[in-house]
Design a protein that fits this description.
Length: 415
């Protein structure tokens, strides 16, 4: 069987390794870090078939511009004269049309449902031992009529797609979540969604892959890819060089820069998010998005996580204190009895979501470089879509029929 080099050991790279290994490929994963941090560790752990509306939807750019100069706002675009960012913003704007959003919805739903199933299959296989995988749904908690009406409309679209959703008033919400004081008027409950603890799954996945003979090289950075004609001949790192038969680019928010080494265009921006963990009992048992605060709350294994912010300010891990404070205050606005303390705030962590301009991931073989497959750009859904992406890449490399039509995910698409 062919040998495959995967660049990036986030959920996408590791899921790809998981399915390629099952198909008998010889797999090596290279990561510039030690696979303990970044987006795949700080995310809210949601498995979200309900998130069918892409980020690039009508009105988002207007919202972004309105919030642009306020770094405490949940959606923040740092004004900067960076050619890649300006181009990406233009593509994002062009993608934010009702017809493009309508086309994206069934695709996002299909890949989400495939992935949700695969999470269950992985759990049932026992490969990773036991791990938290719950299906309690996702509550969209709202305080205002405007938020309710907005979400009601989204939920009708979600229900039209055949996904389970219900409308809860204040009393019904209290009945469902009795052990925590919630200051909200009600919730839309997306019963189709699930949740997990990423910091539990990621190390288990690494351990399983190593045990299966997958080579995982950490603290090794890919610096260059050398091609002749239409083939990558060598992948150069800070520690050596590799001559793989196939390369999978799954380097998250850094994938665009690496694609440039092969003169490929892969418009991508890192959308920074933050998480705060609370390691005491909060009484929260069902994941919730606090609509007006734009924060996610997840009851994970051993702690509750608050996560939020979509900050386009370049690929960095700079912590903006005003954002962290906004998350803590936003959580308290909905859960008045939960005080996030200074230590919890100090232990905040960030991660970069790899955001494509149209809300669809890049999954597919490059048409120009024949031994390159790209798997990135999942934005706010990368955790949910990791397993499906890995499976699709393994199908592409095995030459079998893909589980769904992925033409729209082509990394060569134009905007
Ligand atoms: C706060 C927050 C909350 C989120 N909540 C959810 C959620 O609830 N549900 C959901 O589905 N998604 C969620 N997401 C999104 C999700 O976390 C990401 O889409 C997903 O983790 C991306 O995975 P990835 O493997 O593509 O990238 P990453 O996890 O970023 O992994 C890429 C890896 O590539 C490595 N790399 C980069 N460059 C190189 C190089 N040159 N050489 C070697 N290695 C390299 C990096 O070190 C990194 O480990 C959230 C994200 C954030 C930030």
């Amino acid at each position: 069987m062919k040998n495959v080099l995967i660049i990036g050991g986030g959920i996408v790279g590791l899921s790809t390794a998981y399915f390629l290994n099952k198909e008998g490929f010889e797999v090596t994963v290279i990561d510039k870090g030690d696979i303990t941090s970044g987006a795949s560790f700080v995310n809210a752990g949601y498995i979200t078939p309900s998130h069918i509306i892409p980020l690039a939807s009508p009105g988002m750019i207007a919202k972004g511009i309105k919030m642009m100069f306020n770094s405490a706002s949940p959606f923040y675009m740092k004004p900067r004269l960076d050619a890649d960012f300006l181009k990406w913003s233009w593509y994002f704007h062009k993608s934010s049309t009702p017809s493009k959003v309508e086309k994206a919805i069934p695709l996002i739903k299909d890949i989400n449902l495939i992935s949700r199933e695969l999470f269950t299959d992985i759990k049932n296989s026992g490969d990773l031992g036991d791990f938290q995988l719950e299906r309690k749904g996702l509550l969209m908690l709202y305080k205002t009529e405007a938020s309710y009406l907005h979400e009601k409309q989204v939920s009708e679209r979600v229900a039209f797609e055949g996904l389970e959703v219900s409308d809860l008033n204040k009393a019904a919400l209290h009945q469902l979540e009795p052990n925590v004081n919630i200051d909200a008027e009600g919730a839309i409950h997306y019963e189709c969604d699930g949740h997990t603890t990423p910091t539990e799954i990621m190390p288990k996945l690494v351990a399983y892959l190593k045990q299966q003979g997958v080579i995982i090289r950490t603290n090794e950075e890919v610096l260059d890819m050398k091609s002749t004609g239409n083939t990558i001949k060598e992948v150069v790192t800070n520690k050596g060089a590799y001559k793989p038969e196939e390369v999978v680019l799954a380097a998250g928010s850094w994938s665009g820069d690496l694609a440039k080494k092969l003169q490929l265009k892969l418009p991508l921006q890192g959308g920074k998010g933050y998480r705060i963990n609370i390691e005491r009992d909060t009484g929260i048992t069902i994941p919730a998005i606090l609509m007006e605060s734009k924060i996610a709350a997840t009851p994970m294994k051993g702690f509750t996580r608050f996560a939020g912010t979509m900050e386009f300010s370049g690929n960095n891990d700079i912590i903006r204190n005003e954002r962290v404070a906004a998350i803590a205050n936003g959580a308290k606005a909905f859960y008045p009895d939960i005080d996030i303390n200074d230590t919890e705030i100090k232990n905040v962590k960030t991660g970069l979501r790899p955001v494509s301009p149209d809300g669809l991931p890049y999954i597919g073989k490059s048409t120009r470089i024949k031994n390159l497959t790209i798997a990135t750009g999942h934005a706010m859904m990368g955790w949910s879509l990791g397993p499906a992406t890995g499976k699709l890449v393994s199908e592409l490399l095995s030459g079998t029929k893909t589980s769904m039509n992925i033409a729209a995910f082509s990394p060569d698409r134009t905007f």
